[in-house]
Amino acid sequence: MTRELERDDELVLSELLNHVLDKGVVITGDVTISVADIDLVRVGLSLVLSSVETMERQRAPQRVAPGGNEDAPPVLPDRSPE
Amino acid sequence: MSEREPARAEEPRVEVSRGSAAEFAEELRTLAPSLPDRINADPEHVENGLARLVLTVIELLRNVLEHQAVRRMDGGTLTDEEVERLGLALMRLDERMQELKHTFGLSDEELTIDLGPLGRLG
Amino acid sequence: MLHLYCLTAPRSEGVAAGVRGLAGAPVRVVSTGALDAWVSEHAEAPHPVTVELVREHDRVVRAALAWEAPLPARFGQDFPSEGALRRALAEREAALARALERVRGAVEMTVRVLLADPAAEAEKGAEGAREGPSGPPKPPAAPDDAQVAKSAAGREYLSRLRERQRREAELRHRADFLQTRIARAVAGIVLEEARTPSRPSSRSLTISHLVARRALSDYRRALRSFVDGEPGLRVLISGPWAPYSFTEPRRE
Questions:
Q1: Which ipTM score applies to this complex?
Q2: How far is A72 from chain B (nearest CA, A)?
Q3: Which of B38, B92, B114 is the best substitution to test chain C (most C C-beta atoms within 10 A)?
Q4: Which residues of C touch A11 (CB under 8 A)?
Q5: CA C151/CA C132 separation, integer angstroms
């Protein structure tokens, strides 16, 4: 036998967060590394690019910004405690 | 065209087996850390993406090593001393990994990957 | 800054009209021809992420779902300009259009099952550290041969490892078994199933089902009937959701 939970029940909230925060299509830049047709690791491309840019910036002092701010990776939401 | 209330699909409902809500709540907490526990995705810590990738691969390998080690121990082809060294080495490796995870603020849940058919390691 | 809610079939402007998103911002549509992106404009990215913002995001997605199944976007995708959004979409347009077609007319239901048997767990709990070797005592400094011959910490560690692997294998087999039973129960009613990856030590199984909207009552009935026939089975059923778990392009 199952019972239905109230809208503001903690579990209902967790379900919502689990769907909206952990799933859903991601189009901001993705690299999937797979072996034998099996996806093993997905890396946020924007994060990886930033690391490379940081490294290059440290080697050569001039700015590396071919596309200006338009190519800046999307700002990630601050997930600090409320 | 008259003003109309935007249509909405029904709100998702959640039902659980009686008496299991608390356990599911805890399980969901480990599956997907709730809002306040989320790591602050500070743009300055962009290395996190790379660290997560690297640590995920290491954990994958470590899992395989641990399974192989247990198999070797059970297989009876190792001396007592070899078993002891193996265990100590893996124990130290585990310790290092916990430190690294802690350093990069990564939880085990974040290093979970689906191996598909390869997932059967046991 | 544009906050992305979901991708929908083209010509969704009429549906999006009047819909409000994060902080009450109006939702508007960015059309690429092959699909529409529902967005809202903000001075800066949502900060901090709150439950209310997540609710508002899902509410917009559901407004789209009332019309046609959208591809819900994961929360947190904010673009500095419409141009940046269009570029991101253009890169994957064909795959996204296929993904949209895949979920057309369907919703998502989520089923979770607790794997561990509470009675058995109570017994094992008495054995000590449930996580096994994950939190070991500080290993001694690299021992010399004489010390190794006398110490047993390494062997004990491997024994705990073995025990943990055995428990995990049991959990995994139980999960596989349940997955098969559930699949059988809803065969012919669901369009697709997707099992959420989890850690080997995870004590629950999560299956997402893609269900045609019109098959939803059949689905609920079949699932309930299955659950009622399994005494002691502890499940959680949630939905209907927009197809959050069925957005990744499948391998052709």
A1: 0.83
A2: 11
A3: B92
A4: 236
A5: 19
